[in-house]
Amino acid sequence: KFRNELPPEVFLKPLQAPMTNGPKGLRENLQRARQLLADAGWSIKDGVLKNTAGATFSFEILLSSATFERVMAPYVKNLEKLGMQVRYRTIDPALYEERLQKFDFDMIVHVYGQSQSPGNEQRNFWHSEAAKQKGSNNYAGIQSPAVDYLVEKIIYAQNQEELTAACKALDRVLWYGFYLVPNWYLDGHRLGFYDKFQKPATLPLYYNYIQLLMTWWAKD
Question: Of 120, 138, 177, 140, which is closest to residue 2 (Cα–Cα)?
């Protein structure tokens, strides 16, 4: 189902984030990006990326904290190598939240928190109806019948096998839709400690720093 509406990579190609290993890795990625832009009608003129109508490729990254400017700086630097004009705008959290609710932005930094049992929240993240509803979390404005179908499959899965299959399928469709730009990844929590405290020997799954502060004690 939806095979004719989705990129063939969804069905044929394993999920693999772009790699920059080795001295030529980043350069090759930039060359590939430049070719994709050229195929879409964009070329660099006087150091600026423009289309055939003369429009400049420019956009704004909306931030709620200046801290993220440092995080985004390498990404912006590489976009500028392609001739794009990218600027930051850091605003106070209240105004930032208001603009998010109205979808009034070009690009944001966002984390989609997930659980071990995905369900109704996926409709708020990815469903076409959420794209039309101000205040939803479908910030990418995704409107895809295939995504909608898989979201409903997740919500109404009858067992773990169905849920896992639907989640994997949705992951592939979202990945090859290129709605988001993966930014960073950390497979653990960074924590500094002084070895005078003790914690329970058996910890629950997803034990975090808040629970740590609630359950530690000082050694004798």
Answer: 177
Q: Are 179 and 12 in contact (CB under 8 A)?
A: no
In this prediction the pTM is 0.81
- pLDDT tens digits along 139-166: 999 999 999 999 999 999 999 999 999 9
Residues 6 or more apart from 140 whose CB is under 8 A from it?
179, 180
Helices (H), the chain: 9-12, 25-39, 67-81, 93-101, 121-126, 128-131, 145-155, 160-175, 209-215
Cα–Cα distances (Å) from 13 to 17, 145, 198, 217, in that order, read 12, 21, 47, 50
Backbone angles phi, psi at 68, to 5 degrees: -75, -15
Task: State the CB neighbour count (10 A cutoff) for residue 205.
Answer: 5
